[in-house]
Structure prediction request, 767 residues.
Amino acid sequence: MENFYLLIVVVLFALAISDLIVGVSNDAVNFLNSAFGSMAAPRWAIMIIASIGILIGATFSSGMMEVARKGIFHPDQFYFAEIMIIFIAVMLTDIILLDFYNTIGLPTSTTVSIVFELLGAAVAVAVVKIMNSSDQTLLDLGNYINSAKALAIITGILLSVVIAFLSGSLVQWVTRLIFTYKYEKKFKYFGAIFGGFAITAITYFILIKGAKGSSFITKETLTWIKSNTLTIIAVSFVGWTILLQALVWFVRLNILKVIVLVGTFALAMAFAGNDLVNFIGVPLAGFKSFQAFVANPGTDPYGMTMGILSQKVQTETYLLIVAGVVMTVTLWFSKKARTVTETEIGLSSQNEGDEKFGSSFFARLLVRRCLYINCRLKNMMPAGVHQVISNRFEKPAEVHTAGIDAKDKPAFDMIRASVNLTVASILISIGTSLKLPLSTTYVTFMVAMGTSLADRAWGRDSAVYRITGVLTVIGGWFFTAFSAFTAAFIFANLINWLDSFAIFGLLIIAVIFLVRSHVIHKKKSQAKGKEVTADDDTIIIKGGISEQITFAVTGITEKIPNLFGKIINGLAFEERSKLKVCNKKASKLDIEAKQMKHQIPAMMKKLTEDSISTGPFYVQLIDYLREMAHSMSFIAGPAFEYVDNNHKTLIKEQVHELNTIQTSLDDFFRTINRLLKENNYDTAEIQKAISKQKDLLVLLGKFRKEQIKRIKGDKVGTRNSVLYLGILSETKNLSLHAGNLLKASRDFSGGNIEELESLMEEDKMND
Prediction:
């Protein structure tokens, strides 16, 4: 029996390492985003500072480990075997849940997940104890669960979300009103005061968060810090202000960079000091329980209560250091951490671009109401005051230069990054001093969203998408609590009923989830890397437009005939699975073309003055490509729907006609692709392609007449006719747009603009 529980302890520590990895991938967003988003320093420098903060913060987390032992349930009410069931269920749930969020790129709270997992598992075990007892009912559940703590955490969630958002909005609005976007001159005179206030807040944050859990600071020192808080703040403010002003005068120090980097260090330290318990607190509590069990040989695991966990226990420093090293290594090498980080940076970015989230009804309604309120406020406000405020928030005009990558521009400036870190530090410090259970994820994320709103980053072109994203993340937080509780409850019951079989089965499931999510994330990353974007350095060549655009165009036009052939084949043999795949591929093709069209404005900004004349032809080329993708989706969708609904199969004549069309279409597209790849727009070659297009159009017209004859002769039904005529119609559109694409590509590659314009007019008349 002792060996069995030893195995559980080993499994707990193995899970702890995995949990550290997935946990850091999720929580890196808390302390990295402000520095990354503002590009306050090179990536390697930011990572080094954050790593130092994590290593130091890990040694300050000893005091927080009590949360896992006695913060959620009363350990003296549970036996050793029951405690181990709770702990193993919690760790299995935590890994699966956090890895799921990391894979989809949403930040969630590791604090909330671990708390509700402990709550769910403890409730499950407690319910079993009550059901097996003759003198207890479910009303006695409060004897086992620390319900007051759970209620305080839920209240803290709601308060932190609202307060962090409003505080970030207000402070950023006032700060921007004072310094504007052109803050360089004002910072020569007032930057030291702003920096002194910010770094003082961060310094106090370090003292409050760090000293409380440190094993190096005595109780007397802690008491002195609490009783001299105002003195520490005053001396720190004056000292930092004088020091920063002197450095500005003598070495031209960039104060904002100092604030951002110090704030990054502070939040990284707080993350390790506060959230390390979320990852290793449970395994350490399990280890302490096992030590107590082994110290009493021959004890029945279902007869030994675990009141020992209620005692204050100091965690060994070497264990904390090992955990800090694992967290640091993960921070450097985790690709999922970058995915989660990109979500928050994208939602708070000052720059326009493709939005990660779509729009929702509530977001649209909220934007409309806000626009209405804003309009009313403008009417109530004196025109002069409104103009002054608008001027303070006016962004300097950007200089668009060909060859400059958009990803090399910061998502927001260091004023906002400084406010993000300062406000988050103050709020977390206040929460800690008042012993409120705040989540660092909630606070830092909502402060960042509040500052982006105040900074007018959510313009009318992006507001609904950004708000939808924020609502998605917030909804995910509350789903975390529900899913953590439910999954841990189920896992604990399974382990309680099936013992080791359930443990090994759940371990296998956890491994499958981790491997599967890793594969999914890797595929997403590879697909994203292959996308042709306007931010790619390889895009810029002659006229500011790249060869990669031609590569993308030919890539899509190569997919079309192959996809068309598979659709016809699947339709002929009623292969539902093949048509389902084709429908997904057609939708993906449509999305690719849509993305290219959305990148047109960014591409036009990159055009040099002497190549602007090529712009209209590029726009036209992408328009035709988009229409071709549309046609393919209108062929694939109805074909899949027809077979999926089990309608009558196509008759032999229709299958033969579609195969003939497919052969002609394939020949036509092969010719187009050859000309595009070779950049060969000789008149004779163009005429060959047009001739093949005409042959295809003749076939389509002929087969349309044949279908009408079949309709009149009652050889086919209504649904068959709608599908078949629709395929013929969309194939015609496809061939016409393909021909126009070839002409637009010819015009785009031409040299004499007047000649190109005349050719376009001639083509329009011929069409």
